[in-house]
Design brief:
By secondary structure, the chain is of the alpha/beta class. Helices cover 39% and strands 25% of the residues. It folds into two domains: 57 residues, Winged helix-like DNA-binding domain superfamily/Winged helix DNA-binding domain (Arc Repressor Mutant, subunit A); 177 residues, 3-Layer(aba) Sandwich (Rossmann fold). A hairpin with a 4-residue loop joins strand 10 and strand 11. Helix 6 runs parallel beside helix 7 and helix 8 packs parallel to helix 9. GO terms for molecular function: DNA-binding transcription factor activity. It comes from Rhodovulum bhavnagarense.
């Protein structure tokens, strides 16, 4: 079977099943796993699939990728971003850490920080930071989103309005070419917008895959972000916008 026909069939399988695995495809098409990995990379570069650990999932602009699959996307890049972000968080800070796998990576790098207060609407962040005895953890109320351990809704927003944060570390699902930060759940968006209002400084953590995705709900603009931590250079137009807005961009590629 030619490469073009095989990739067409792989895409059809992904549309039917939502996800494809490298080893399963290699067996189905009687080719090597290296060949399948190249096919999936080609389909990802073309914008049809999103690479995850062990395979790929169908890309969508109206539904987010499953949480466990998101954890497997660009893990090394997220670790590099988290390390850069944590280096600039001082001891004794009052932080907000939001929902997302990259913000969870930031939490994992704060285990040796001292005298922190971390407020979060992410149960996973709270569980990670429980290992740091010098970190006071405040978990917001709200409706539990079982898919990823996030707390969202009006109760969450009302509770978080009681705080004033030194730094809010947030994520997003996609970044539009004009610098708009996008997400899938409008209830999470409301929480993020409230947090930006309550923070002295807002930091965004997002890897390069967010430039290739789309989502239906606007969170904010990069113009409202003080610092943006990512793993690859921004597209030229977006880099210029950040310069115009005064948004500091820190690029930390994985080792």
């Amino acid at each position: 079977m030619s490469q073009s026909f095989r990739q067409h069939d792989i895409l059809e399988i992904a549309r039917d099943e939502g996800k494809v695995k490298v080893e399963d495809l290699a067996e189905r098409f009687a080719v090597s796993v290296q060949t399948i990995r190249r096919d999936l990379s080609d389909l990802a570069e073309a914008g049809w699939l999103e690479r995850v650990h062990g395979g790929a999932v169908l890309r969508s602009s109206v539904a987010n990728i499953g949480y466990e699959d998101r954890r497997g996307i660009n893990e090394e890049a997220k670790s590099a971003i988290a390390a850069a972000c944590a280096r600039d968080i001082p001891d004794g800070a009052a932080l907000f850490l939001g929902i997302g796998t990259t913000t969870e990576a930031v939490a994992a790098t704060l285990l040796h920080h001292r005298n922190l207060m971390v407020v979060t609407n992410n149960i996973n962040v709270a569980n990670i930071l429980a290992a740091n005895p010098d970190c006071e953890i405040v978990l917001s109320g709200g409706r539990l989103r079982r898919a990823d351990g996030g707390l969202v809704g009006n109760l969450t927003t009302t509770m978080l309005e009681q705080f004033r944060f030194d730094i809010a570390v947030i994520g997003c699902s996609a970044i539009a070419p004009d610098g708009e930060l996008l997400d899938f759940d409008f209830q999470e968006v409301g929480v993020s917008q409230s947090i930006i209002r309550r923070a002295r400084a807002t930091w965004l953590t997002a890897d390069h895959s967010k430039f290739e995705r789309n989502a239906p709900v606007r969170v904010a603009s990069l113009s409202e972000v003080d610092r943006f931590f990512t793993d690859a250079g921004l597209p030229d137009a977006l880099r210029q916008l950040c310069q115009d807005w005064g948004t500091d961009v820190t690029v930390s590629p994985p080792a």
